[in-house]
Amino acid sequence: MIVVIGAGVTGLAAGLALARRGRSVCVIERHARAGQEASTHNSGVIHAGLYYPPGTLKARLSVEGRERLYAFASAQGVPHVRCGKLVVARAGEEAALDALLARAAANGAQLDEASPAFVRQREPAVASSRALWSPDTGWIEAEALVRALERELRRHDGILLPGTPVEGIDPGTGGDLVVTTPRERIDAGAVVNAGGLWADEVSRMAGGEPFRLYPCRGEYAELAPAARHLVRGLVYPIPHASGHGLGLHLTRTLDGAVWIGPTIRYQEDKSDSERDRLPIEAFLEPTRALLPAVRLDQLRLGGSGIRAKLHPPTDRFADFLVRRDARNPALVHAAGIDSPGLTACLAIGEHVASILLD
């Protein structure tokens, strides 16, 4: 039996990849339902692989994962669209666009110069001095993706135990691990740590190597229904100068809503995504950088979520942690899965399976 801890999209995808290979798999989730944290509290964007340093897992698994995700969503009837996105620059940011073009090419991701006429046709209300077009970027309904992964896991005889917190992970016999829950003890030949924000605590519980995850809150606003016509697709600015995110962007969903965000705030609490929410006024100027005509009365507060970052606010980048634990070879980490984790989930799952079985 292989035990996967965490039933977000990463854990479900890892469990599915193992179950498809005929392995006995049990996915354990502390919440009453799968996918209740970062998996369904994000922009839902399918990333093309533009932003990440070449050669990193984020770059490779984003490019691989997007095609796996499009194919899976089509086969499983998960609402999605390969709609493309504009990346727009203001005056003085043109050099950053050139750098982004070079990085996308190094990653094998298509990114093209967008003419002013193309931008006006696609997004007439968006301001830019220059823009790029990513044809392979898209959007997926994250909640439906979670349900499809859960359904496929069970169809391949995988077990999902929701409402089941892990109380202990102890050495077993012959290098195995014993996972203790309030109801039972499970003998595990291997444990996959897909614990999201709590993956560092799972590693510590299992006697694995120490690492720290930094909770980073992202908050959203929305356009009021009467203003949704201002945005037709996905519009991104040049990536955030801090390196901590891709900047406050515009996301049009399949039901016509337009999300604005996410913001970026490091915090200590891994659970609190609502206390001290930003006022709606904080979204006005960042939104106007993309949509000059927007008014304050056209904005509404939206959702929020917390992603798990492997680097503190003083650093700019950390790659996914997907490998065997350095101390305990029966433990495989799938940790620090922030963006582009949703895009890469199926590729991460395959990578985890190859680590364990190949």
Tell me what the structure shows.
With 358 residues, the protein is an alpha+beta fold. The protein has two domains: 2-63 and 142-212 and 316-357, FAD/NAD(P)-binding domain; 85-135 and 214-309, D-Amino Acid Oxidase, Chain A, domain 2, CATH 3.30.9. Helices cover 27% and strands 25% of the residues. The chain has eight helices and 21 strands. The chain has helices spanning 9-20, 57-76, 94-107, 116-122, 142-155, 199-205, 284-288, 341-357, and strands spanning 2-5, 25-28, 45-46, 80-81, 85-89, 112-114, 130-134, 138-140, 159-161, 168-171, 177-180, 185-188, 190-193, 214-223, 234-237, 249-252, 258-261, 265-266, 299-309, 321-324, 331-335. Strands 5, 6, 7, 14, 15, 16, 17, 18 and 19 form a nine-stranded mixed sheet that branches. It has a six-stranded mixed sheet with strand order 9-2-1-13-21-20, with helices on both faces. It is elongated. The two termini are 17 Å apart. The model has no long low-confidence stretch (mean pLDDT 96).
Percentage of β-strand residues:
25-35%
CATH superfamily of the largest domain: FAD/NAD(P)-binding domain
Mean pLDDT: 96
Number of domains: 2
| Proportion of residues in helical segments | 25-40%
> Would you identify the regions where 5 or more consecutive residues have pLDDT less than 50?
none
Termini separation (Å)? 17 Å
CATH architectural arrangement of the largest domain: 3-Layer(bba) Sandwich
How large is the radius of gyration? 20 Å
Number of helices: 8
SSE pattern, N- to C-terminal:
EHEEHEEHEHEEHEEEEEHEEEEEHEEEH
Structural class: alpha+beta
CATH class of the largest domain: Alpha Beta
Number of strands: 21
Q: Under CATH, the topology of the largest domain is which?
A: FAD/NAD(P)-binding domain
Shape: elongated
Largest sheet: 9 strands, mixed
